[in-house]
Amino acid sequence: MSERILSKRFGLADSHTIGVYEATGGYATARRVLQELTPAQVTDEVKKSNLRGRGGAGFPTGLKWSFIPRDTDRPVYLCVNADESEPGTFKDRHIMEQDPHLLLEGIIISAYAIGCHQAYIYIRGEYIPQIRRLRAAIQEAYGRGCLGRRILGSGFDLEVAVFTGAGAYICGEETALLESLEGKKGYPRLKPPFPAVVGLYGCPTIINNVETLANVPAILEKGGDWFAAVGANRSGGTRLFGVSGHVTRPGVYERPMGYSLKQLIFEDAGGILDGRTLKAVIPGGSSVPVLRADEIDIALDFESVAAAGSMLGSAGVIVMHDGTCMVRALQRLIHFYKDESCGQCSPCREGTGWLLKIINRIIRGDGRPEDVDVMRDVAEGILGNTICPLGDAAALPVISFVTKFRDEFEHFVRHKRSAVLAPVK
Amino acid sequence: MELSDQLKQTLDALKEQFPKGLSVLMPALHAVQAEHNHIPPELEQPLAAYLGVPAEIVHEVSTFYFMFHTRPVGRHHIYICGNLSCWLRGAETLRDHLADRLGIQPGETTSDGRVTLSVVECLGMCDHAPVMLLDGEFHPDLTVEKVDRILAGLS
Amino acid sequence: MDKVTVTINGRSFEARPGQSVLQTALDNGIHIPHYCFHPGLPVAGNCRMCLVEIEGVPKLQIACGTTVRDGMVIRSDNDRVRQAVRHVLEFLLINHPVDCPVCDQAGECGLQEYYMLVGRYDSRFAENKVVKHKKASPIGRWVMLDQERCILCSRCVRFTREITKTNEMAIFNRGDHAEIDVFPGGELHNRYSANIVDICPVGALTCRDFRFRCRVWYLKQAPSVCPGCARGCNIAIHFNPERPHHAGGRRVLRFKPRPNPHVNAFWLCDDGRYSYPFIDDHRLRFAALREEGGVRQLYLRDALDRLADWLRSAHAGRTAYLLSADASNEELFAARKLLRDALGVRCLLPDTGLRTGDADDFLICEDKHPNSRGARILFGLGESDPVSPERLEAVLGAEPPELLLVNRADLPGPLRDKILAAGTRLVFLGTNDNATAAAAHLVVPLAVFAEQAGTFTNIEGRVQKFELAVPPLGDAAPEWSVHQGLAERLSVDLAFPGPAAIFHQLAAEVDAFRGLSHESLTPHGAMIRHE
Fold first, then answer.
1. What is the CATH number of the domain that holds B123?
2. A424 — contact with chain B (CB < 8 Å)?
3. Phi and psi of C61, rounded to 5°?
4. Which residues are paired to A168 by β-bridges?
5. Helix (DSSP H) and strand (DSSP E) numbers for chain A
6. Assembly ipTM
7. Chain C residues with CB inside 8 Å of B69's CB?
8. pTM, whole model, 2 decimals?
């Protein structure tokens, strides 16, 4: 059946406690790794696994770790990206709520691999209950010698601290995360230099997503080859797919890479709400191009979704049925990017504001014939021209919505109302 | 305006936990807001002096992050998500209902200072949409009835 | 060192390893548009105007943030780049208030410039523009802020963070509500504040002193050296020859810094920058003679006749000359050759403005004269030779001279009265009016530095040239011209035909200046030989 790597403790009573964690085999792998393997061996195993970043960018994790300079005399940092703010994404929240020790064990093994003795978990400020739970788990781990000095019967030291954000999606971008951790505004940095060389406080730093790290214990327990085989193409392992929107059973579903999007929506998530018809799906969090209902017969791995003209991203699947006004739906997304634009660079700062003004005007009934083309061109002007991918993230939904649902936009402009009769509210 | 002794103690502990760079500033502002309900503008310079960071950077940070408020907010701050997944599940109706019940527009505070209503971006609770964050707790799977019950329970 | 050759728009150039693509292009006369880049500040890469295409790289890259590599092929002139840059410019303009008619920056504005160069599109922005808080808001003694004009290039932020390290400028709020500002209720409080006006590409930061005085297209420039202190920061004098009825009749409207990597980099202190008014204000324009009945104006030639008489008739041992460290090397040399060498006049350098104690570790020197070093070298004075007011009192007060020539300085009141009471003939040679000039028996009007070409020697011994910006007012003349006139009248065989020729003589006779010439001082000056 389907491998349960990340969600195997979900649903167990007190799954978040160290008692349950250890009773179900937790920390055994970390103990063995620290006592028997070298850091290089750990990295090699992760490389073999084809584990790719689960935050959205999908960068090969083992490769990222290998960018840490070998001969550095500066401290190496591990920053856990728990800033989960991509619309439609809530998987990291589940891990931190229901199996925080899995994350901690992943942190331990990964820190060992890169030579890090101080890890920070950057968690979004709104996740207040989850912060509490994480802090409790860390305290338990310290209490049991799983964190601190000479942990798990080894000579390895590791300190873990929680750092709370304060409401900025941009801080999920790794260099903006570093800026925020350093006490400043979340302004992304120019790259190069990359964080693995010049990161936190100018020192070599790896930033990994929560779900990415949560996979590491299983990789070291059962081997990189096994993990790669669970997946598809060059995407190893499973994903915690998050399904939300117009489905009867929204939630997280752990399925192997390459799982069918159609199956995920119509079987696992129980199909379309209120017996209506599917209209559109965003497969990977709001920052990826939307798919029409006739485009969803695809496998959910990085390569296949890219081939379909979208991206797997954060695997946040947002489902929209035929009661959805696509103009209003896009307005929600544009509003998001305009709110979250940090303002550092011109195209995103001014462009997202402009896009919002145009679409608000269309919705108000003051649309002009050229608006749709202008919106598309503005998005094209942002795409690829910004310091960080937030610009692209704003542009891609705009371009895909006005391309694939152009008639709805033109209808709204011409008739000053939505083409969807009785739209969902 | 001065930093209270209790706040100074908290700041000292935070400075020990985050000694490098200006890192202490973020948790420090959270601490200030926890004590004062918001970040009083008059406290920015004393805070800057105490932490040894430029006051300009304190103000940059306090105006950049949406969870930092530089003006007083209500005793209870309702963060209701207005992003796509919540919107698809009826958040707009609930927002209007809240505004109606409280007699304020989103972004405003009730005249008795009890409740502030803010429409925010994705809270990461899309599987329980529509959702609000209030007083450190998430309220998932909202309906009009649930909202009314929550409001009734506010002091 | 490894050679780095790059191709830009089809042409090959050698680049310095570690240089940015933008710097390489600019060094070779290829103008890639940019706003946030400034050679004196760290790279920010936020304006996105310098996007270029790099062969082999899928996305366009910012030239300021890309280091050259051997064999790199760069294009800034194809449609793809042009379109991207036009988009960026459009984004910067959509919320920009079209204040040109009331904005001082017009004519030297980055947005105007690039709109004409790479824009030229019709606006398609049909929305209301973002409104910000501060319009025409002073944020310091010298600087005015207009937040809506700001393109958030962050140059001013980087200047106050990295150069003055005073942190006054910051960017508050997020997204398109981001605003450049000082701390609420605060202001700029560093002594280099007006540099942010220079570096602001648009009219967000403008100079309060220059505000609405003159349109910049009426200004001409002359390269010069700041007379405010011994640092000798390089400046450009901006003067207004076309609209003399503007700016209350002042000819010189402002100083701007001129880059010199050896002296002031790109910067200028506020004190020096705003010292220009003395060029036009309270000037002595005509020679004057004080007699029993009062003061009457003289032609300069008549004043020189009179002065020559007085010099001829006075005993050399009882004539004194107070020289000025505000004079150029050429003026000082002429004075030395005639007065000290030929006539044996006793020459003293007052130390007022020399040891003020007001200095910093950046540009500001405690010596508030531009040419103390030149004065000391040319008159063979040591460090401790300049005379304090007490010593001056002792020297001149005890034995008042028959004839006292004072150059520019204002004698302390009691000393002045004492000398006059003792019957000393007091001659004032100077540029600006003061109490000593008012009390003098003879006034000879001198041209200021901006009204002649010449050189100063700065605190480090760098000899730097300045050019004539505006002609002398009235009958004022450069001091060397005065000494030429005196030499002729006194039959002394000296000639001071002009600054370049005088410098030539000076370099031949004074060891410290050996080998230098006016030509050799371009572009950044040259060091004297070790004293």
1. 3.40.30.10
2. yes
3. -120, 155
4. none
5. 18, 11
6. 0.97
7. none
8. 0.96
